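User: Hey, quick favor. My workstation is busy. Could you predict this chain's structure for me?
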Amino acid sequence: MSTVLDFPVKPEARPYVEAFAESAHEPDWLRRARRISLNRFAETGFPTRRSESWRYLDLRALEAQPMLPSVMGQPMAVPTGLALASGAARIVLVDGRFAPELSRLDLPKGVWLGPTRKAVVERPDLVKAFAADAGTNHPFASLNAAFFADGFVLEVGYGVVLDAPIEVIHLASGAGDVSIHTRNMIELRQGGRATVVETFAGDGKYWRNDFALWRVAADAALTRVALVEESGGATHFADVDAVLLGERAKLNSFALLLGGGTIRHETVVRSDGEGASCGLYGAFLAAHRQQANIVTTVDHRAERGATREVFKGVAAGRAHGAFQGRITVRPGAQKVDAHMLSRNLLIGAHAAIDTKPELEIFADDVKCSHGAAVGDLDEAALFYLLARGIAPDEARRMLIEAFIREAVDIVEAPAMREHLLNRLGRRLAALEE
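Assistant: No problem, here it is.
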């Protein structure tokens, strides 16, 4: 059944409203949530550069050519070298839908992992927490809530510690100019610990619109590593809402953005628990005419919280990169320790990077700081390498790799760090071709 709205719809939203169809196989609460979210997107439409958090991205091409949701995932294999070299649990999504033939879901007692569609039936207590999009100002999160086909849900029970990482691979088959909407959730109960590694890759032209909700309880710790290697014709939007619910809750997140025509990675953290800590780290490498945008918001609402942010950016050719970070300390959130650093490297006269770190402090007993820098390659270091017979292209590659590696080295697990460095080396080699 299609939906007809009785209020004005933004022109760019109309193709998506007309493509929306309810499923009789979904529960009533989910159908209602989808309609609410569709209405919100229809009213707001696409963000423009007048919106502060979207000022550095040019969305005109996406707005001019609608990319409607994909209908069916196409069979494909996981590309060689993309997955971790381990026997850890793995869930694979192809064109936004669970691929059981490529997945391994064996996990210990106290852990629930499965596709979102299965969770709708088996774990509605979890899925209802993020199926609706009430209260958000993010139009593409609303679009995601209306159209998501699948995704993954992970629940780690009380005191359960996962020694091996859980791997999630998002693939696009290149089946056409489509949008892929996935909706994911990670819930760590008190004392739970888990590491999740997500990889995004694909072929052709597509728009990936990914949304995730993370909830970390008292004394629980979540580590998440994201590797984005989308195709050159892809648009990649990732929106993460994280809530540190309890005392001493801990979150560490790292994102390496290497591929995609337009990439936007946004993380919003609400720190509600006393002594909760948050580490947000990452790097992007943009070349040719790529756009790469990292956006972070951390909201400290309790005492003795801590935040560390370190992001590196490299732009070459006519690429444009941006970092926007904001840390807010609410009244009464005393003794918060928060620091943010953005360092960026320009390769060539036509590349550009914008950086905008912000602090909003409403408490008086805090330690907060931020720093930002944008510069060129170190001429003295480049001369040193050239003087030792290293070719100019190889010398520049070595310096770029060393610059980004400082961020990658933050990842503690040696195997995971080596995997990221291998993918970075592969990307740098492709730039020289």
